[in-house]
Amino acid sequence: MLNEIFENCNTKMQGSVDHLHRDFKTLRTGKVLISVLDNVKIDYYGTPTPLDQIGSVIATDATTIVVNPWEKNLLPDVESAIFAANIGVNPNNDGDVIKLFFPPMTVDQRKESVKQMKGMGENAKVSIRNDRKDANDKIKKLEKDKEITTDESKSAQDTIQKSTDKFITLIDSVLKDKEKEILKV
What we know:
Strand order of the largest sheet: 3-4-6-5
CATH architecture of the largest domain: Orthogonal Bundle
Radius of gyration: 22 Å
Strand content: 5-15%
Largest sheet: 4 strands, antiparallel
Structural class: alpha+beta
CATH class of the largest domain: Mainly Alpha
Order of helices and strands: HEEEEHEEHH
CATH topology of the largest domain: Topoisomerase I, Chain A, domain 4
Helix content: 55-70%
Number of domains: 2
C-alpha cells in the first residue's frame, strides 16, 4: 500500500520535471529552435493543428526558421497564426514559404528569457509540493483508518519528503544549467 503511494508520487514528480523540460523548448536561447513554434496552431479545416502537421518546419541556420506548408492556400493562415503567437519576429511570406528571421538576442531579451524560465521552474516546484501533499494526505488517511501505525506514517512521510527534496534539487540544478545556457553570449 505504501509502496504504491511512493511510486505514484515519484512518477508524478518526475512528470513535473519532464513538463519543465518541454516548457524550456518554447524558450528562446542564443540559437533558434523550431520548438519555439510548438504552441502555434492554425485552423485547419476547423481543427486547431500544429504547424509541423501542415507542412515542414526547418531551422536553416542559427537565426532562421522556414515554414513550408504542403497546401499553399494555408500561407495567409500560417502567417497570421505566427504573428498572433507573438514569438518575437514577424513572418515574411514570399508566396512559397514563410521565413522567420530571428535577430541575435539582446541582454534584455536574455534576462527576460531567464525570468520566464524561473517562473516555469517555480511552477514545477509548486506541482511537486502538491504531489507531496497528496501523498501525505493518503498516508494520513491510512493512519486514521488504522491500516498503518503512527511510526509507519511518520516514516512514510519522511520518505515522501526525501523524494520531494530530491526533485526540488534536480529542478534547481536544471534551472541553473539553463540560465547559464541562456545568458551565454
